[in-house]
Prior knowledge:
The protein is mostly beta strands. 9% of the residues lie in helices and 31% in strands. Bound molecules: calcium ion (2 copies). One calcium ion binds at residues 254-257, 261, 274-276. Residues 173-287 form the C-type lectin domain.
Amino acid sequence: MRSTSHPGVVSYAVQGQDNELLFFNNGGIGFTLYVHGKTAALGALPVWNGERHAVCATWRSNDGTWQVYTDGVLQASGWGLNVGGKVRSGGTWILAQDQDTVGGGFDRNQAFSGELSQVNLWDRVLTPAEIGTDFCGQHGNVIDWATTDIKVLGQATNDEYRCGCPKIYYINVNGVCYKYYPEAKTYAQAQQTCAADGGLLAMPKDDQTNNLINSLGSGNRWIGLTDVANEGQWVFENGQALESNGYSNWNLVEPNGGSGENYAAFSWTGSGWQDWPGNSAMPFTCQIGEDLE
Length: 293
Ligand SMILES: [Ca+2]
Ligand SMILES: [Ca+2]
């Protein structure tokens, strides 16, 4: 999930109990898990930084044990939640809102604003290894996200969730994972940020990739291309010479900075490239996955 709001996230209502199962943020910093109207305070969860996060809540009937994990890390746990209870069948599931009646009773202040995906439900408590750090490829035995028909209502829209990156906040496009970093850094600092993720500054090696990387941000942004080793000999971050690749997208008159400008960036005008001094600070995009050799 990814959001900056304080909402009802997953709501399951049955006749006579609109909080049969509910994962909810109480408007402040704390989350609450409801089982058959009973509550466990999960506390604050580190999920409000605009990145994607994997959240998993568990509950066991016989002793009411509950746990909540984010990105594979146990954040809180307790016991005594609705001991011996059952979650009844035949109700209605709503994502991104809280039901106060079955299928309705919505409060506009409890709408989730953000992205939700890979919502699965099991009839048993998963092991920590099963919970893991990402939910791509999971298949709940009660609700399987991959095969469940989801109705899109209200202002919600449907989009493809691009699974399959080693870091969940990267998006997968044709087997390569990208993340845009909006914070301004020097070229060297941007290189370090990408390296810490196990990647490189994004390398636009064809028109399609260039447009994709450009679409992730705006303004001046570093790309993984430099002539610092030999003036005029532009080389991608993975060591491939620009010339041997056969695609470039320099703006008119660029590159024009000689030995004073040894690093390539998108310009504020769009997807064209310019050479620029590396000690300037600007946003950038990292890539991991394919094409790092
Ligand atoms: Ca240069
Ligand atoms: Ca220039």
